[in-house]
Amino acid sequence: MTFNPITTLTGTKATGSVQSAIALASQKTGIDFHYLMGQAQLESGMRADARAGTSSASGLYQFIEQSWLRVMKQHGTEHGLGWAADSISTTSSGRMAVSDPNMRRAILALRNDPQTASIMAAEHASDNKDAIESSLGRDATGTDLYMAHFLGLGGARSFLGAMQDNPNRTGATMFPAAARANRNVFYASNGQPRTLSQIYERFAAKLDAGAAGGSARAGAVQLASTTLGDSGATVIPGNGETSTSEAAVWAQATLDQINGGSARVQTASLMRPTPDTARLAYMMLATLGA
Hints:
The protein is mainly α. The protein folds into two domains: 11-212, Lysozyme (Orthogonal Bundle), CATH 1.10.530; 215-288, no CATH class. It has helices at residues 11-29, 33-44, 65-75, 82-85, 101-109, 114-136, 142-165, 171-174, 176-181, 183-186, 196-212, 215-224, 244-258, 275-288; strands spanning 89-90, 96-97.
């Protein structure tokens, strides 16, 4: 059993790598790219190595340990992580456990890998989407999905059901533990407790802002993972010489030059782009109308 070490991602190339990982997860699961972008921005500021100070949450999507082990147990095998899924068991109390401490650390460390975190966040959202729609009898919104990530599926069902009946109910009275760990969510700056509708609306606005904050490069990376033209070919570079993040950097540099800015290429491997990288960057620009 082998697995790749986790590396810390920083700077322009890191941002492109995170966005391309999110785009690929969206393509594989059908979960909206902009929702996944907004969630990552809201949860971690797009930082793959982010850690919470008030809980065990870690990584791009700030999975707590139990939630991560649960989604990995359910979906790890289908994404080539059978070694992880097979190592996780469910105790008589319903908790997820890994008997080998070293294996447990390795599985939890995957929360800091953008590709693994993105695909598990998308799978988690897909599972929650089906359950929420079945429970509420309506289509789930991105904010509904975020509530399920934030409070757990049971908590989200309670929150959404109570908000439907009484939107002015105080959130902290329903979820005291969550309120203690996330005071800024449940209370205004003056200490006034927020209502369920206020909490929901704030998350909706933050998700929208996070998705919009992805900039032009996010759009370019998303385009790299979607079908272009009538050929039916999906543009996902798969060899070791090129990547969507490198192509996105070149596309953005070209846009900077067009707009009169100074293009800055910080990665040595980008000084001489491979033909595949150049072709992909050209298609990104063409699709953007540049």
